[in-house]
Write a structure and sequence with these properties.
seven-stranded antiparallel beta sheet; 2 helices; 4% helix
Length: 223
């Protein structure tokens, strides 16, 4: 049984599905049309530019044009892999290690047991980066899922959707857009990743705030 504190963008001790509810996230196929203001598809990782947001104006005096944009971009591989019943990720661009999902009741998940299903996962949080966007590009051209919601701190579970990508393209997630590290459809996946180097994170804990885990589909909706 896995009961240690989870260190993602915030600390979390998994609660049992008997204690909290479950919100079933709707899955949609990712296109530029369905993504809308959330981001856009990326055909060429090297050519794609990361959106960088100017440092915010704090008072009545404006930030001078051309300034407040010098944080730059960092990049590196972003690795996701199932370790037993837990999805573990490593963001080499910013040195982050996270547990982002579970295939079963999170309070009972173990590294020593294989997943008994691969159609969905449970997750507990999302975050956004106010300083810049983030580009993910699959190195193996395999499908993946992105949990996304639009800008604004006053969010509700219904604001989130699971976007299914076929894997032939990557995605630029715009600054301020709620997201999780991407979810591989298979056992593991490695993405090329580049993002704003400031890497400011604003997070929401679904269990603490809404009293529920999000159940994210890993298979596309049938037409």
């Amino acid at each position: 049984m896995q009961s240690d504190t989870i260190q993602g963008t915030q600390e979390f001790v998994p609660k049992s599905l008997k204690e909290v509810g479950v919100y079933e996230v709707e899955v949609v196929k990712a296109t530029n049309e369905t993504l809308g203001d959330l981001g856009f598809l990326v055909d060429d990782f090297d050519a794609a530019e990361v959106q960088i947001v100017q440092w915010p104006q704090l008072g009545h005096r404006p930030v001078l044009p051309g300034t407040g944009l010098g944080g730059g971009v960092t990049q590196g591989d972003f690795k996701m892999a199932w370790n037993g019943e837990m999805l573990q990720t490593h963001n080499h661009a910013v040195g982050g290690h996270y547990i982002t999902g579970w295939s079963c009741d999170p309070s009972e998940a173990s590294e020593n047991k294989e997943r008994d299903q691969n159609d969905y996962l449970y997750t507990f949080e999302a975050n956004y980066h106010p300083d810049g966007g983030q580009i993910f590009y699959p190195m193996d051209n395999k499908p993946f899922v992105a949990l996304l919601a639009g800008e604004g701190d006053d969010i509700e579970p219904a604001d989130f959707k699971a976007y299914y990508f076929h894997g032939s393209q990557g995605v630029h997630i715009n600054a301020g857009i709620w997201h999780q590290p991407l979810f591989p459809v298979g056992q593991s996946q490695v993405f090329k990743d580049k993002q704003g180097a400031v890497h400011a994170c604003v997070a929401v804990n679904f269990v603490d705030e809404f009293g529920m885990y999000f159940k994210v589909p890993l298979t596309p909706k049938e037409d």
